[in-house]
Design goal:
7-stranded parallel sheet, Rossmann fold, 431 residues, alpha/beta, 14 strands
């Protein structure tokens, strides 16, 4: 039976189900993925598959969105080395995460939405799949889901765990709900010691500090080669606004407004903008065109980028290509108070980065890249553009940053193997 606090939470979650359905219908207009298999979110699955899914042995991994799914793919490679025949149950909460996760599936694997955290949906999910173990990626803590796993004896771990100061303070304010949830986890494997300290303060059973899984990522070699080939063929240095979020393209436009008005935006630099979310590709293209800029979209390129004032990266799964094409990148999500994006991916492609003031979701990686010279810090978009331009005009400093970026990842690898080994030990201990 739920505690009084979780009982109140459960009532609110149940009352919110109609709102969730309405939200999914609205989001499906722009992202059709949100309209597929909606009943899975409420723990309802086709009756004909019950005999197959009820077999025990699922290794369940939950990766909420795109970034967590890519981290999960790194861990999954190491897990499959431990158990070559493992059956993967992969869950997500966002359409981009689910689309990316399809690449990870093998014959016999299963992919569904994570159930809404109501008592009924969670119970149906666990009864239907009966996972041998659950692995939540990075930050996902759902009180009813965790409690139900605990009650059923299903080990549930939080892997590649991170908790920034803002989220920690929020969790403390909801300590009556958050602390029992963290305490009921079987194990937590943190990215950094700072993350571990905050998680322990909430009662989480931290059993290892393994680093960030994303350092173990190997960028697509073909994309890197193609990006570098296009960069070498470009008559001008390429400045990339990478994984930009809503409002940041407008900040960029404001910062280069004078250059646009004087018709000299692309005289010395080639700009490339890659929005974070695919549903914004058309919106960003329209924004740029209404500002009077000529736009060339990646989806329309054939053998090489089409000449234009701004290139628009309107594709998914090609960040290695974009970072390799760029001379310097401006980090999206860090110029608005959104917490930044994954700097490790840029470093793995030997791309120096200008980061804005808001990197709280990747604080350790941001500090590390600044310390080793892979990144520079700007307080706003105009300063970022000025720093990027100055970096491009200093070939010696640029080469040093590229070399530092190439070696950064090698020095911090190993989280995937450490996490997979810890999960293996946990399963052996409870077998």
């Amino acid at each position: 039976m739920p505690t009084l606090a979780r009982g109140l939470y459960s009532i609110l979650i149940s009352l919110a189900q109609p709102l969730l359905r309405r939200k999914l219908r609205r989001r499906a207009v722009l992202e059709p993925g949100y309209g597929m298999a909606v009943e899975e979110r409420f723990g309802r699955y086709p009756a004909h598959e019950a005999s197959e899914t009820s077999k025990t042995g699922w290794v369940w991994i939950h990766a909420v969105s795109l970034g967590e799914t890519r981290a999960a793919a790194i861990l999954l490679t190491a897990l499959r080395q431990q158990w070559p025949g493992m059956r993967l149950l992969l869950t997500h909460s966002t359409a981009t995460g689910r689309a990316e996760g399809q690449k990870m599936l093998r014959a016999g694997d299963r992919q569904v939405w994570l159930p809404w955290d109501s008592l009924g949906a969670v119970r149906r999910f666990l009864q239907h799949f009966r996972p041998a173990i659950g692995i939540l990626m990075e930050t996902e803590v759902w009180p009813n889901l965790i409690a139900a796993c605990h009650q059923r004896g299903t080990p549930l771990v939080l892997a590649n765990a991170r908790l920034n100061e803002k989220s920690y303070k929020q969790a403390l304010r909801l300590g009556w709900l958050a602390k029992p949830a963290y305490a009921a986890l079987t194990a937590v494997y943190a990215q950094t010691e700072h993350d571990a300290q905050r998680l322990r303060a909430l009662g989480a059973p931290v059993q290892g500090v393994f680093g960030n899984l994303k350092f173990d990522a190997v960028p697509d070699a073909q994309q890197i080669a193609q990006g570098r080939l296009w960069r070498s063929a470009s008559a001008k240095p390429v400045l990339l606004l990478a994984s930009s979020r809503e409002g940041e393209e407008a900040l960029w436009l404001q910062a280069v407004k004078e250059q646009i008005e004087l018709h000299r935006l692309s005289h010395t630099m080639q700009w490339l903008i890659v929005p974070r979310h695919p549903q914004r590709f058309d919106t960003v293209a329209t924004l740029l065109e209404q500002a009077g800029l000529q736009v060339s979209r990646r989806s329309q390129w054939t053998d090489s980028p089409t000449p234009a004032e701004v290139w628009l990266g309107d594709s998914m799964g090609e960040m290695a290509l974009y970072y390799s094409l760029a001379t310097v990148a401006l980090l999206g999500g860090s110029f608005a108070p959104l917490g930044g994006q994954n700097l490790i991916e840029a470093a793995a492609c030997s791309c120096p980065v200008i980061q804005g003031p808001h990197t709280f979701n990747f604080a350790e990686a941001a500090a590390l890249t600044l310390e080793c010279g892979v990144a520079r810090l700007a307080q706003d978009m105009p300063q970022a553009i000025a720093l990027a331009t100055a970096w491009v005009q200093d070939p010696s400093a640029l080469a040093q940053a590229q070399t530092a970026a190439a070696t950064l990842g090698q020095a911090h690898q190993g989280a995937a193997q450490a996490t997979a080994a810890a999960v293996a030990s946990l399963l052996l201990a409870i077998a």
